[in-house]
Amino acid sequence: MIFTTIYIFLVLYVEKPIRQLTRYMEHVEQGEFQDEITLTTSNEMQSLAKSFNQMVRRVADLMNSTVSHERELARAQEKLAFHRETHLMNGRLEEQIREIENLNITLEERIEEIEEANYKIADLAGELEDKNTNLEKAVAKLSTLYRLGLAINSTIEVEDLYQLVVKTTMDTLQAQVGYIILYDADHGELKVINLAGHRDPNVSAMRVPMKPSSVSSWVIQNSKPLLIADITQTPEFDMVSPLGFERKTLICAPLMVKDEIIGTLTVVNKLNNTVYNHEELELLSTIAAQASIAIKNAMLYDEQQKTYLNTIQALVSAIEASDSYTRGHSERVTRFSLALARKLELPQNRLKVIERAAILHDIGKIGIDLSLLHKEALLTPDDVAELQLHPTIGMKILEPIEFLHDVRLCIGQHHERYDGLGYPNRLAGEELLLESRILAIADSFDAMTSDRPYRKALKVEVAIQELAENAGTQFDPALVPIFIKLLKTPNFLPQREECPVLHAVPAASRPSVPQSCVAP
């Protein structure tokens, strides 16, 4: 009984609280801090529970404090690690910054080198551009000179050459006015040739005296080219040219062959109103040097032609001089032919053909018996046949002279008829040279209005009627009315005088001639 009581007592008052305490301690050991334990079995247990609770609270506080310290320590370690990493990163960043700075310094040096290289390239590009510009100018200059050389060497006719040189020079140097002046050393005069860009009919073949204020006079006297960029800055020269136009800027170069000055080549005022410069002066001087040789050759060729024509015309004059009936015939035919040709506005080269053909159209009569030419009796068929040989003979006489090719054709056709019934080849209409059709009209008119051994001269009115009636058969119907209109022009047919043969004689050596012998 006592044992049981003691057992129960021990179980209730000792074992149970101890087990409860043990379980709570196990929870505490596992970190589970629950509510405080309560033991009410005895004062001792209450005291023990109270002490245990206090101990648990302390342990909990210590654990919390330890955890808190450990967290702070972890955070501090994390911060320290982060700080280290940051420090390392800063170190690496500083190294990278130093590398970048070094790279920047190197880059700046490279940029400076590139800039210097660019400056050099720019300078080289500028020099290259200047050289290209100079090269282009040189090529253009050589091209111009080449074209000019081809052009001036393609013609030997002096008048055509003058025109070609002036036109080409004006186009090349963009000039408003251009002209050639020939120097007459014997008379101390300047002869204006082929003035272009200034319309004044009185200037053609104008002669002006040598004087100090003349640009061409200065160039000829000094034998060197002259550039006047601004005429207002050179009061020693005339601002207004003797040819009648105002000068603002000009260049003038001598035409020289070896040491002989034959004239000057001048261009005046630029189309764009700028001024001429030394480069253009050099170009004009080169053109003038090239043109000088061509002009001199053309002048020599022209003199040679005149010599040929002078010799041949001497033969014509000999024929006409032996016959008072035909004296002056070729001169009058030339006058009539040129008048009609100018009315038709034929170019200068064709005017030269008609003039020479008219002068020489009867050259073939050299091969005809003089007694037949002067025969007053009725001509027999054989006589007519022999007389009709003179166009063919004339062509054969002129055959060796190459530059008279068209003149030969014209002479050979001047007795052909428009209807094809003429001689020697029975050519008709458009088969005939225009110059031949002109010459046929002029020759027939003068023949009709001149005395012949076998008849007296017809009156002009009768001859005009004959021309009109034979238009379309013997003569070109389009030309006859124009020629008749010329014949009816006042003073076109003045009183006939004896005309000397002068066309082949140089103009400076010609004596004065009757007005009726001068071609209009």
Structural summary, described in words:
A hairpin with a 4-residue loop joins strand 1 and strand 2. The longest helix is centred in the first third of the chain and has 111 residues. The chain has 3 domains: 114 residues; 142 residues, 2-Layer Sandwich (Beta-Lactamase), CATH 3.30.450; 196 residues, Hypothetical protein af1432 (Orthogonal Bundle). The chain is α+β, with helices and mostly antiparallel strands and 520 residues long. The C terminus is likely disordered. It is built from 14 helices and 6 strands.
Can you lay out the helices and strands and say which pair or pack?
Elements: H1 2-29, H2 43-153, H3 158-173, E1 175-184, E2 189-196, E3 207-209, H4 215-222, E4 226-228, E5 250-257, E6 260-270, H5 278-321, H6 329-343, H7 348-360, H8 370-373, H9 381-387, H10 390-398, H11 405-413, H12 434-448, H13 460-469, H14 480-487
Antiparallel strand pairs: 1-2, 1-6, 2-3, 4-5, 5-6
Helix pairs in contact: 2-3, 2-5, 3-5, 6-7, 6-12, 7-11, 7-12, 10-11, 11-12, 12-13
The secondary-structure class comes to alpha+beta
Q: Share of helix among residues?
A: 55-70%
Write down how many β-strands occur, each being a DSSP E stretch of 2 or more residues: 6
Strand content is: 5-15%
Question: Which key features would you list for this structure?
Answer:
single chain, 520 residues, alpha+beta, Beta-Lactamase, Hypothetical protein af1432, 3 domains, 6-stranded antiparallel beta sheet, 6 strands, 8% strand, rod-shaped
